[in-house]
């Protein structure tokens, strides 16, 4: 398992960060993926993870571990994984320990990094650009990404995740301006 230290951003700072990386040729591909969760409690489904509303959330509805599995239409080199947490609203529903896994095939998931957060409020950005693929690409090549929640704050059972954003360099699925 690699060690990718997350960077914490307030919502305003995250907006400036994403504006800056988009100007550098990175694009948000979050809405181009297929999202699958291990469970969900209606109406808090997986779509809430990408709806651009910090007040909405996905909520699990089963025993831990909880999983969010993302499949990309084709192999991508992911540069940034961004997750929004709000402990002040979610308390014991807030994940404390998450394992991030990736793979090129659906049954070959390998641990990429572990994210441990303490009473988080804001965006946590895992910058994968420190990894270099054999072809020289900066980031981690994958077709599947999985977030495995193994512990919540205060021993909570179900989890809330509010938003997730996934970034890569410009690729064939995007218009020149990086729009979705």
TrEMBL record:
One of its GO terms (biological process) is anaphase-promoting complex-dependent catabolic process. It comes from the Eukaryota. Keywords: Cell cycle, Cell division, Mitosis, Ubl conjugation pathway. One of its GO terms (cellular component) is anaphase-promoting complex. It holds the Pfam family ANAPC10. Gene3D superfamilies: Galactose-binding domain-like. Residues 5-180 form the DOC domain. Signal peptide: none annotated. The keyword Ion transport does not apply. InterPro entries: APC10/Doc1, APC_su10/DOC_dom, Galactose-bd-like_sf. Belongs to the APC10 family. Component of the anaphase promoting complex/cyclosome (APC/C), a cell cycle-regulated E3 ubiquitin-protein ligase complex that controls progression through mitosis and the G1 phase of the cell cycle. This is Anaphase-promoting complex subunit 10. It comes from Carpediemonas membranifera. The lineage of its organism: Eukaryota, Metamonada, Carpediemonas-like organisms, Carpediemonas.
